[in-house]
Amino acid sequence: xxxxxxxxxxxxxxxxxxxxxxxxxxxxxxxxxxxxxxxxxxxxxxxxxxxxxxxxxxxxxxxxxxxxxxxxxxxxxxxxxxxxxxxxxxxxxxxxxxxxxxxxxxxxxxxxxxxxxxxxxxxxxxxxxxxxxxxxxxxxxxxxxxxxx
Length: 149
Known about the structure:
Blueprint: H1 2-14, H2 18-40, H3 49-72, H4 76-90, H5 99-113, H6 121-132, H7 138-148
Helix pairs in contact: 1-2, 2-4, 3-4, 5-6, 5-7, 6-7
């Protein structure tokens, strides 16, 4: 993952694509911050692909929230920039699951854990995050789990 992002950054710099360059630099900075935090905890030097996927998912979520806020405020210039950054970051995420696939995964996880109510929500979400990081919108999954339970 790290190499893919760095290669894309180099290509963006050669193409003089300023938005893509700045977005990928932000991604690299977030990854380096996590590397430093992992090192400070006495852990390994570099974070793995799972944590990079987690970082990218979080960045997309932040930009989606900003996009909706800017759109509501009538700042179309800023909302367009957020939308373009979302597109750039999602290039590095695995294919996102459809609503039907999310529902099927939720139902399978509930059956596997033998969840009986909302008190098991944490176990279900933990299992889903372990298996589907970067592939699933966990906000949608949470709503579906509540409906199923």
